[in-house]
Design goal:
Blueprint: H1 20-30, H2 36-56, E1 61-62, H3 74-77, E2 81-86, E3 91-94, E4 97-100, E5 103-111, H4 116-125, E6 133-134, E7 136-139, H5 141-149, H6 154-158, H7 164-184, E8 189-194, H8 196-199, H9 202-211, H10 216-231, E9 239-244, H11 263-269, E10 274-278, E11 298-304, H12 314-324, E12 333-337, H13 352-370
Parallel strand pairs: 1-6, 7-8, 8-9, 9-10, 10-11, 11-12
Antiparallel strand pairs: 2-5, 3-4
């Protein structure tokens, strides 16, 4: 077993653009032209290739690119008892585009069972070596909590949970179970992807919650509570990090706003080892909120964007790293893209070659800054 721990000075969030062969196989499988076994064979082959590419670029972390899922978050939720989903063509309105997502809602109380993602991890783990460690990405407990209390789902949720407290407790318990499943499978690096904090920053979010008659401070307390409850009792030798962003679908975003209004909660009090933070453009605001980061956390600066094929100016990125170091010491800072390249299988608007060029730049900059 690899003893390496994330994050690394040059790192990445997790998802990669789906190769053409994978897209074609998925379409054939859905059309009934190939069997599930034939489809799985293609998936395994493409994961093997993308892992080899990550190693070829000199990265110390490997993921399966999230090639086995349609959505970065919903597929994981489907692995719990009590959760149902269906494709309806509905979705969430992003900036200029509708993110088409499966409706995902409760049909019973949330409970853990043998989670399919753990088996997916086992396939990835075989590629670990002395230079690389496998990490697996799953949506944060807060993301599952939020999914079940959004207006479109709240009526179904209230059939099983009269209030949010019991829902929080059940989600946390289900996550603790799944975290143990990952640990028993040899996973020592887990990442919680979390758009909930990014969804409540900024004036637009403040107005949205006010219109719904919801106390935003109470929401923050609940998000922090469900995440930290899920992490209680985690093994000491298991690294669990969190990635925060403001939405990433087909190169569009969900919301904008600085971290100021959530820093006292997630930066200061969330019990993760590191935070991967979106900082690729002005929508994220400045670095001043980093002064609230607790001293036990590492910060991964997402200064390279996955939303555009344009390569960043190296010196400007280096300057921004040193600017951030005014608030968090340089030895606790790391570098990555701001998000994955394909949070959903539709992917962002760049080519695979441009994707790899971004990762080469991340490594090049990190080696120059930290040596």
């Amino acid at each position: 077993m690899s003893n390496l721990q994330t994050p690394f000075r040059y790192d990445f969030v997790g998802s990669f653009l789906r190769p053409q062969a994978l897209k074609e196989a998925k379409a054939q499988f859905l059309a009934g032209a190939i069997s599930e076994d034939q489809y799985d064979k293609v998936v395994n082959e493409e994961i093997t290739k993308v892992v080899n590419k990550q190693k070829e670029l000199g990265y110390h972390v490997i993921t399966d690119g999230e090639f086995r899922r349609s959505f970065w978050h919903l597929d994981f939720m489907w692995g719990f008892e009590g959760v149902e989903h269906k494709a309806t063509g509905n979705g969430v309105q992003f900036s200029g585009e509708l993110a088409v997502l499966d409706d995902t809602y409760l049909v019973g109380k949330i409970k853990a069972k043998a989670h399919p993602f753990v088996q997916y991890f086992k396939f990835l783990k075989q590629f670990e070596d002395e230079n690389t460690v496998a990490k697996y990405t799953i949506p944060a407990p807060a993301q599952t909590f939020q999914q079940m209390i959004v207006p479109v789902n709240i009526e179904a949720t209230r059939k099983f949970y009269p209030d949010n407290e019991e829902l929080i407790q059940d989600i946390a318990a289900a996550y603790r179970d799944v975290i143990k499943q990952f640990y028993d499978a040899g996973c020592r690096n887990l990442q919680l992807d979390d758009c909930t904090w990014g969804a409540i920053v900024g004036d637009a979010a403040k107005q949205r919650y006010k219109a719904l008659g919801i106390d935003l401070e109470q929401v923050k307390e609940q998000l922090l509570k469900v995440n930290n409850l899920a992490l209680e009792g985690k093994p000491a030798d298991m690294v669990i990090n969190s990635h925060i962003c403001r939405g990433n679908y087909h190169s569009t975003y969900f919301t904008s706003g600085p971290y100021d209004t959530v820093a006292d909660y997630v930066f200061a009090k969330e019990n993760v080892n590191a935070l991967f933070l979106e900082y690729d453009d002005e929508r994220s605001g400045g670095f001043a909120p980093l002064s609230k980061v607790s001293e036990d956390k590492k910060i991964v600066l997402g200064l390279i964007t996955t939303k555009s094929p344009v390569l960043e100016d190296k010196q400007k990125v280096i300057d921004r790293i040193h600017e951030a170091a005014q608030y968090v010491p340089l030895d606790r800072l790391y570098l990555s893209p701001q998000c994955g390249f394909a949070s959903c299988e539709i992917g962002n608007k760049l080519t695979e070659e441009q994707q790899w060029a971004k990762l080469k730049l991340v490594k090049e900059i990190a080696e120059e800054v930290w040596g």
